[in-house]
Design brief:
This protein is α+β, with helices and mostly antiparallel strands and 334 residues long. 21% of the residues lie in helices and 27% in strands. Helix 4 crosses helix 5.
Length: 334
Protein backbone atom coordinates (compact mmCIF):
# COMPACT_ATOMS: atom_id res chain seq x y z
CA UNK A 1 0.00 0.00 0.00
CA UNK A 2 1.29 3.50 -0.78
CA UNK A 3 2.49 5.69 2.06
CA UNK A 4 0.37 8.82 2.66
CA UNK A 5 3.18 10.94 1.18
CA UNK A 6 2.74 9.02 -2.10
CA UNK A 7 0.38 10.85 -4.47
CA UNK A 8 -1.09 7.47 -5.51
CA UNK A 9 -3.21 7.27 -2.38
CA UNK A 10 -6.54 7.12 -4.20
CA UNK A 11 -9.58 9.20 -3.32
CA UNK A 12 -13.03 9.00 -1.79
CA UNK A 13 -14.47 9.02 -5.32
CA UNK A 14 -12.97 5.54 -5.84
CA UNK A 15 -16.14 4.43 -4.01
CA UNK A 16 -18.83 3.88 -6.67
CA UNK A 17 -21.75 6.26 -6.22
CA UNK A 18 -19.74 9.08 -4.62
CA UNK A 19 -19.10 12.46 -6.25
CA UNK A 20 -17.17 15.45 -4.85
CA UNK A 21 -17.27 19.12 -5.74
CA UNK A 22 -15.45 22.13 -4.29
CA UNK A 23 -16.35 25.80 -4.18
CA UNK A 24 -13.35 28.05 -3.49
CA UNK A 25 -14.15 31.70 -2.76
CA UNK A 26 -11.77 34.05 -4.57
CA UNK A 27 -12.69 37.00 -2.31
CA UNK A 28 -10.89 35.51 0.69
CA UNK A 29 -9.49 32.12 1.65
CA UNK A 30 -12.63 30.08 2.39
CA UNK A 31 -14.94 27.63 0.67
CA UNK A 32 -16.97 24.45 0.95
CA UNK A 33 -16.92 20.86 -0.29
CA UNK A 34 -19.91 18.69 -1.22
CA UNK A 35 -19.77 14.88 -1.04
CA UNK A 36 -22.78 13.63 -3.00
CA UNK A 37 -24.50 10.21 -3.07
CA UNK A 38 -27.26 10.76 -5.64
CA UNK A 39 -28.79 7.31 -5.10
CA UNK A 40 -28.67 7.76 -1.34
CA UNK A 41 -26.31 6.29 1.23
CA UNK A 42 -26.82 4.83 4.67
CA UNK A 43 -24.99 7.20 7.00
CA UNK A 44 -23.57 7.64 10.46
CA UNK A 45 -21.61 10.31 12.31
CA UNK A 46 -19.25 10.64 15.25
CA UNK A 47 -18.70 14.08 16.77
CA UNK A 48 -15.56 13.76 18.87
CA UNK A 49 -14.29 17.32 19.28
CA UNK A 50 -15.67 19.49 22.08
CA UNK A 51 -16.49 22.55 19.94
CA UNK A 52 -18.48 21.30 16.92
CA UNK A 53 -20.57 23.16 14.37
CA UNK A 54 -22.98 20.70 12.76
CA UNK A 55 -26.36 20.27 11.08
CA UNK A 56 -28.69 17.23 10.79
CA UNK A 57 -26.54 14.95 12.94
CA UNK A 58 -29.38 13.84 15.22
CA UNK A 59 -31.22 12.14 12.36
CA UNK A 60 -28.18 9.87 11.85
CA UNK A 61 -28.70 8.19 15.23
CA UNK A 62 -29.39 4.50 14.45
CA UNK A 63 -32.73 4.60 16.31
CA UNK A 64 -34.04 7.54 14.30
CA UNK A 65 -36.26 7.30 11.25
CA UNK A 66 -34.38 8.56 8.17
CA UNK A 67 -32.25 5.78 6.69
CA UNK A 68 -30.29 7.52 3.95
CA UNK A 69 -28.64 10.84 3.16
CA UNK A 70 -28.00 12.36 -0.26
CA UNK A 71 -24.97 14.53 0.45
CA UNK A 72 -22.64 15.75 3.16
CA UNK A 73 -21.49 19.38 3.20
CA UNK A 74 -18.14 20.40 4.68
CA UNK A 75 -17.58 24.13 4.96
CA UNK A 76 -15.41 26.91 6.24
CA UNK A 77 -16.92 30.02 7.78
CA UNK A 78 -17.68 28.65 11.25
CA UNK A 79 -21.42 28.47 12.02
CA UNK A 80 -22.12 30.81 9.10
CA UNK A 81 -20.94 28.05 6.78
CA UNK A 82 -23.80 25.75 7.75
CA UNK A 83 -25.89 27.77 5.29
CA UNK A 84 -24.03 26.02 2.46
CA UNK A 85 -26.11 22.90 3.10
CA UNK A 86 -29.25 24.82 2.08
CA UNK A 87 -27.73 25.46 -1.33
CA UNK A 88 -26.90 21.76 -1.65
CA UNK A 89 -30.52 20.91 -0.89
CA UNK A 90 -31.70 23.25 -3.63
CA UNK A 91 -29.29 21.77 -6.20
CA UNK A 92 -30.25 18.20 -5.30
CA UNK A 93 -33.96 18.97 -5.50
CA UNK A 94 -33.49 20.51 -8.94
CA UNK A 95 -31.76 17.31 -10.05
CA UNK A 96 -34.46 14.98 -8.71
CA UNK A 97 -32.54 13.79 -5.67
CA UNK A 98 -34.11 13.55 -2.22
CA UNK A 99 -36.46 11.75 0.13
CA UNK A 100 -39.90 11.43 -1.47
CA UNK A 101 -42.42 12.74 1.08
CA UNK A 102 -45.37 12.84 -1.29
CA UNK A 103 -45.50 16.60 -1.53
CA UNK A 104 -42.05 16.63 -3.11
CA UNK A 105 -38.43 15.70 -2.51
CA UNK A 106 -36.52 16.59 0.65
CA UNK A 107 -32.77 16.12 0.16
CA UNK A 108 -31.06 15.05 3.38
CA UNK A 109 -27.77 16.94 3.76
CA UNK A 110 -25.90 16.73 7.08
CA UNK A 111 -23.10 19.27 7.45
CA UNK A 112 -20.12 20.26 9.55
CA UNK A 113 -18.02 23.41 9.60
CA UNK A 114 -14.53 24.50 10.54
CA UNK A 115 -13.38 27.91 11.78
CA UNK A 116 -11.38 30.00 9.31
CA UNK A 117 -12.63 33.49 10.19
CA UNK A 118 -9.18 34.64 11.36
CA UNK A 119 -7.80 34.18 7.84
CA UNK A 120 -8.79 37.23 5.77
CA UNK A 121 -12.06 39.17 5.85
CA UNK A 122 -14.44 37.31 8.19
CA UNK A 123 -17.43 38.96 6.51
CA UNK A 124 -16.85 36.68 3.52
CA UNK A 125 -18.04 33.14 4.27
CA UNK A 126 -19.67 30.24 2.41
CA UNK A 127 -23.43 30.62 1.95
CA UNK A 128 -26.23 28.78 0.14
CA UNK A 129 -24.92 29.94 -3.25
CA UNK A 130 -21.51 28.49 -2.38
CA UNK A 131 -23.06 25.14 -1.45
CA UNK A 132 -25.03 25.11 -4.71
CA UNK A 133 -21.85 25.84 -6.68
CA UNK A 134 -19.95 23.03 -4.93
CA UNK A 135 -22.68 20.55 -5.92
CA UNK A 136 -22.73 21.85 -9.50
CA UNK A 137 -18.97 21.20 -9.68
CA UNK A 138 -19.21 17.64 -8.32
CA UNK A 139 -17.88 14.72 -10.36
CA UNK A 140 -16.67 11.18 -9.75
CA UNK A 141 -13.11 12.18 -10.71
CA UNK A 142 -10.44 12.39 -7.99
CA UNK A 143 -11.08 15.70 -6.21
CA UNK A 144 -8.53 18.49 -5.99
CA UNK A 145 -6.53 18.51 -2.76
CA UNK A 146 -4.86 21.18 -0.67
CA UNK A 147 -5.99 24.79 -0.51
CA UNK A 148 -9.43 24.29 -2.06
CA UNK A 149 -13.04 23.95 -0.93
CA UNK A 150 -13.54 23.57 2.80
CA UNK A 151 -9.76 23.59 3.29
CA UNK A 152 -9.10 26.91 1.54
CA UNK A 153 -8.68 28.86 4.79
CA UNK A 154 -7.62 25.95 6.98
CA UNK A 155 -4.43 26.10 9.03
CA UNK A 156 -2.75 23.78 11.53
CA UNK A 157 -0.47 24.07 14.54
CA UNK A 158 -2.02 27.05 16.33
CA UNK A 159 -1.16 25.97 19.88
CA UNK A 160 1.58 28.62 20.19
CA UNK A 161 -0.17 31.32 18.18
CA UNK A 162 -1.22 31.95 14.59
CA UNK A 163 2.17 33.53 13.81
CA UNK A 164 3.72 30.06 14.21
CA UNK A 165 0.98 28.09 12.38
CA UNK A 166 1.07 26.52 8.91
CA UNK A 167 -1.34 25.94 6.05
CA UNK A 168 -3.87 23.12 6.26
CA UNK A 169 -6.24 21.96 3.55
CA UNK A 170 -8.29 19.15 2.04
CA UNK A 171 -6.97 15.65 1.40
CA UNK A 172 -8.43 12.38 0.15
CA UNK A 173 -7.41 8.72 0.08
CA UNK A 174 -8.84 5.25 -0.36
CA UNK A 175 -8.10 1.64 0.58
CA UNK A 176 -9.39 -1.46 -1.25
CA UNK A 177 -9.41 -4.96 0.24
CA UNK A 178 -10.91 -7.98 -1.53
CA UNK A 179 -13.01 -5.88 -3.87
CA UNK A 180 -14.42 -3.53 -1.19
CA UNK A 181 -13.31 0.11 -1.03
CA UNK A 182 -13.25 2.62 1.81
CA UNK A 183 -12.35 6.21 1.01
CA UNK A 184 -12.05 9.39 3.04
CA UNK A 185 -12.01 13.12 2.45
CA UNK A 186 -10.66 15.32 5.24
CA UNK A 187 -10.58 19.10 5.73
CA UNK A 188 -7.82 19.63 8.29
CA UNK A 189 -7.84 22.79 10.41
CA UNK A 190 -6.41 21.24 13.57
CA UNK A 191 -5.10 23.14 16.55
CA UNK A 192 -2.36 20.51 16.68
CA UNK A 193 0.31 19.11 14.36
CA UNK A 194 -0.28 16.78 11.43
CA UNK A 195 2.13 13.88 11.84
CA UNK A 196 3.35 10.92 9.81
CA UNK A 197 1.20 8.07 11.18
CA UNK A 198 4.06 5.58 10.73
CA UNK A 199 6.79 7.55 12.50
CA UNK A 200 4.89 10.05 14.65
CA UNK A 201 7.11 12.85 13.31
CA UNK A 202 5.36 16.14 12.51
CA UNK A 203 4.81 17.10 8.87
CA UNK A 204 3.09 20.45 9.42
CA UNK A 205 2.06 22.41 12.49
CA UNK A 206 3.52 24.74 15.08
CA UNK A 207 6.87 26.17 14.03
CA UNK A 208 9.84 27.23 16.10
CA UNK A 209 10.42 30.89 16.99
CA UNK A 210 12.53 31.45 13.86
CA UNK A 211 9.80 29.81 11.74
CA UNK A 212 12.21 27.48 9.98
CA UNK A 213 11.45 24.17 11.66
CA UNK A 214 8.63 22.29 13.37
CA UNK A 215 8.39 22.61 17.13
CA UNK A 216 6.61 19.25 17.71
CA UNK A 217 3.64 20.23 19.87
CA UNK A 218 3.48 16.97 21.80
CA UNK A 219 7.05 17.18 22.99
CA UNK A 220 6.81 20.95 23.56
CA UNK A 221 3.77 20.61 25.83
CA UNK A 222 5.32 17.72 27.75
CA UNK A 223 8.47 19.68 28.45
CA UNK A 224 6.38 22.50 29.88
CA UNK A 225 6.03 25.08 27.11
CA UNK A 226 2.75 26.91 27.84
CA UNK A 227 0.16 27.02 25.04
CA UNK A 228 -1.35 30.34 23.99
CA UNK A 229 -4.87 31.14 25.11
CA UNK A 230 -7.11 30.22 22.19
CA UNK A 231 -10.82 30.65 21.65
CA UNK A 232 -12.62 27.29 21.71
CA UNK A 233 -13.90 26.18 18.33
CA UNK A 234 -11.44 28.20 16.26
CA UNK A 235 -9.96 25.03 14.80
CA UNK A 236 -11.54 21.66 13.83
CA UNK A 237 -10.93 18.76 11.46
CA UNK A 238 -14.02 17.56 9.58
CA UNK A 239 -14.52 14.90 6.95
CA UNK A 240 -16.41 12.03 5.44
CA UNK A 241 -15.71 8.32 5.03
CA UNK A 242 -17.42 6.36 2.25
CA UNK A 243 -17.60 2.67 1.39
CA UNK A 244 -19.34 0.55 -1.21
CA UNK A 245 -20.07 -2.12 1.41
CA UNK A 246 -23.69 -2.47 2.51
CA UNK A 247 -24.07 -1.22 6.11
CA UNK A 248 -26.83 -0.61 8.61
CA UNK A 249 -27.05 2.79 10.29
CA UNK A 250 -25.47 1.33 13.42
CA UNK A 251 -22.58 -0.05 11.39
CA UNK A 252 -22.15 3.27 9.59
CA UNK A 253 -21.93 4.98 12.95
CA UNK A 254 -19.25 2.51 14.06
CA UNK A 255 -17.32 3.22 10.85
CA UNK A 256 -17.33 6.93 11.70
CA UNK A 257 -16.08 6.08 15.20
CA UNK A 258 -13.25 3.99 13.73
CA UNK A 259 -12.31 6.83 11.41
CA UNK A 260 -11.38 8.94 14.41
CA UNK A 261 -8.65 6.40 15.20
CA UNK A 262 -7.00 7.45 11.96
CA UNK A 263 -7.46 11.11 12.82
CA UNK A 264 -5.71 10.54 16.14
CA UNK A 265 -2.82 8.82 14.34
CA UNK A 266 -2.33 11.74 11.98
CA UNK A 267 -2.95 14.72 14.31
CA UNK A 268 -1.49 15.46 17.72
CA UNK A 269 -3.20 16.52 19.87
CA UNK A 270 -6.57 15.47 18.44
CA UNK A 271 -10.15 15.83 19.71
CA UNK A 272 -9.33 18.76 21.98
CA UNK A 273 -11.75 21.19 23.66
CA UNK A 274 -10.63 23.69 21.01
CA UNK A 275 -11.54 21.47 18.03
CA UNK A 276 -14.95 20.38 16.73
CA UNK A 277 -13.66 17.18 15.09
CA UNK A 278 -16.54 15.49 13.23
CA UNK A 279 -16.55 12.55 10.80
CA UNK A 280 -19.47 11.26 8.73
CA UNK A 281 -19.66 7.78 7.20
CA UNK A 282 -21.57 6.89 4.02
CA UNK A 283 -22.33 3.40 2.68
CA UNK A 284 -23.53 3.09 -0.92
CA UNK A 285 -24.00 -0.69 -0.73
CA UNK A 286 -22.75 -1.39 -4.26
CA UNK A 287 -20.10 -3.97 -3.35
CA UNK A 288 -21.14 -7.63 -3.72
CA UNK A 289 -19.51 -8.63 -0.43
CA UNK A 290 -18.91 -7.45 3.13
CA UNK A 291 -15.48 -8.11 4.68
CA UNK A 292 -16.76 -7.66 8.24
CA UNK A 293 -16.68 -4.64 10.50
CA UNK A 294 -13.22 -5.36 11.90
CA UNK A 295 -11.66 -5.10 8.44
CA UNK A 296 -13.82 -2.12 7.43
CA UNK A 297 -12.88 -0.28 10.62
CA UNK A 298 -9.17 -0.83 9.95
CA UNK A 299 -9.66 0.42 6.39
CA UNK A 300 -11.54 3.52 7.57
CA UNK A 301 -8.86 4.48 10.07
CA UNK A 302 -6.16 4.03 7.43
CA UNK A 303 -8.01 6.07 4.81
CA UNK A 304 -8.64 8.91 7.27
CA UNK A 305 -5.01 8.99 8.39
CA UNK A 306 -3.75 9.09 4.80
CA UNK A 307 -6.28 11.74 3.77
CA UNK A 308 -5.28 13.94 6.71
CA UNK A 309 -1.64 13.76 5.70
CA UNK A 310 -2.57 14.47 2.07
CA UNK A 311 -4.39 17.63 3.24
CA UNK A 312 -1.17 19.29 4.42
CA UNK A 313 1.14 17.84 1.77
CA UNK A 314 -1.03 19.31 -0.99
CA UNK A 315 -1.57 22.68 0.73
CA UNK A 316 0.09 25.81 -0.61
CA UNK A 317 1.53 28.83 1.22
CA UNK A 318 -0.95 31.59 2.00
CA UNK A 319 -0.28 35.28 2.62
CA UNK A 320 -3.30 37.39 3.51
CA UNK A 321 -3.83 41.10 2.86
CA UNK A 322 -3.48 41.60 6.63
CA UNK A 323 0.07 40.23 6.51
CA UNK A 324 -0.52 36.76 7.96
CA UNK A 325 1.85 34.23 6.38
CA UNK A 326 1.00 30.53 6.59
CA UNK A 327 3.79 28.46 5.01
CA UNK A 328 3.10 24.96 3.73
CA UNK A 329 4.88 21.64 4.24
CA UNK A 330 6.82 22.06 1.00
CA UNK A 331 8.34 25.33 2.27
CA UNK A 332 9.84 23.70 5.34
CA UNK A 333 10.87 20.62 3.39
CA UNK A 334 13.01 22.87 1.20
Amino acid sequence: MPHPTDHRCGAITDVPGIEVGHFTDTRRPTGCTAIIARAGAVAGVDVRGAAPGTRETDLLEPANLVQQVHAVMLSGGSAWGLDAASGAMRWLEEHGVGLDVGAGLVPIVPAAVLFDLHVGDARVRPDAAAGYAACAAATSAPPAEGSVGAGTGACVGKVFGMQHAMKGGVGSASVTVDGVTVGALIACNAVGDVVDPDTGLPLAGARTEDGRALRDIRRALLRGEPPHTLLAGTNTTIGAIATDAALTKAQAQRLAVAGHDGLARATNPAHTQLDGDTLFALATGRAPRHPGMLVLAAMAAEAVARATVRAVLAARTLTTAEGLVLPCHADLAR
